[in-house]
Amino acid sequence: MADILSPVERSKRMRAVRQRGTAPEVTVRKIVTSMGIPYALNSRSLPGTPDLVFRGLRKALFVHGCFWHGHSCRQGRQPSSRREYWIPKLEENRRRDRRKRRLLKKAGWGALIVWQCQLNNRRALIRRLSRFLEVQVIGGSAENIIR
């Protein structure tokens, strides 16, 4: 399928795609904030510039868009146009992500990826985050979290 936008228009749209403060990231930040755990945003001092950093716990959290990071879900499907460009690009994103997580682990940090598609099941996401951050959830909602 051919792109309906001109190369200039496509370039303009791609530049407008946010890297920080995305809707999925904000959703995860709200959940973590309700847990009462302090965090820093986008720490450039750590490999991969994690979206949320829990320095006291030595843990980092990445919020990944399924398309951009090649998740194996419906939202992470491969593009139908310009495949010669997109497939190598998305594969390089996956390789870079693995490399950065290995560097974090080598430095003694834990890392967790929250995929965009996982935001659809808020309860499961809260349980997953609470296990990673070592807090206890009562009743499966962010309002019922104890340390």
Report on the architecture of this protein:
- The structure is a single chain.
- With 147 residues, this protein is α+β, with helices and mostly antiparallel strands.
- The protein has helices at residues 7-15, 23-35, 83-106, 122-133; strands spanning 40-41, 52-54, 59-64, 110-115, 136-137, 145-146.
- The strands form 2 sheets. A 4-stranded mixed β-sheet has the order 1-2-3-4, with helices on both faces. Strands 5-6 form a two-stranded antiparallel ribbon.
- Strand 5 (136-137) and strand 6 form a beta hairpin.
Radius of gyration: 17 Å
Number of helices: 4
Secondary-structure element series: HHEEEHEHEE
Mean pLDDT score? 86
* General shape: globular
Fraction of residues in helix: 25-40%
How much of the sequence lies in strands comes to 5-15%
| Quantity of strands, as a count | 6
Uncertain segments are none
Terminal CA distance reads 52 Å
The structural class is alpha+beta
Q: Largest sheet, order of strands side by side?
A: 1-2-3-4
Largest sheet: 4 strands, mixed
